Every structure is written in C-alpha cells, then in structure tokens.
Amino acid sequence: MQGRTALHMAAANGHMDVVSYLLDRGADTNIENNEKNTPLHWAALNGQIQVSEELIARGANASALNRYDRTPLDEAMSRGKQQVVDAIVAATAATSLASSSVQE
Predict the structure, then answer these.
(1) pLDDT tens digits, the chain, 104 residues: what are they?
(2) Which CA distances in Å does 38 have to 6, 25, 45?
C-alpha cells in the first residue's frame, strides 16, 4: 500500500468529485504505487464503477499490469465485482472505437 497517491485513495473510495478535481489539475491516470497498482486497479478492486469509467475515459490503461501481472479487469474479476468488469469492458471498447474513428 506504500506509494499510494491522493488519486489512488480517491479512486479506491469512490470519491468521484476528488478524482475529477485531481484529473482536471493534471494528475497522472496511470501513476503506480509500490506494488505497481494504478488508480484504476484500486477502483476496480473496490467496485467503483463510475470512477473506473472516468479513469478510462481520461486515459487510464486498462491493460496495466501490477507486480503480480494482474490487470484492473483481473482484480475486479477476482473480487466478484461483475458490474466493474462490465464497465471496464464497455469503457475500453468505447475508447477503442473512438480512437479508431479519429484515425480514419
């Protein structure tokens, strides 16, 4: 748990207003703690659907691996957070589609 930032804490606890505030001021969506967990890992672990969606929309890497080679999706699945699993899959697909249409 060492190395957790304010964004990690806000994401883990579902404080969407704080997450938005920090991101609006340039917080790194992919910052890692000592275990290489990103804020998205913590949001997923704790079932924070809206925060997970917002982090992905703002550029969080849903494929980021922590020190145990687990993605945020893996963490949500391991905790039985099906709504977060669905949200990550949907948000990732939407982000990929948006990127594809911009490149065309």
Answers:
(1) 578 999 999 999 999 999 999 999 999 999 999 999 999 999 999 999 999 999 999 999 999 999 999 999 999 999 999 999 999 999 888 766 555 554 55
(2) 12, 18, 11
Cα–Cα distance for residue pair 68/14, rounded to 1 Å? 24
Domains and CATH numbers, the chain: 6-103 (1.25.40.20)
Distances in whole angstroms, Cα of residue 94 to Cα of each of 8, 9, 21, 88, 99: 24, 26, 23, 10, 9
Structure tokens at 95: 């982000």
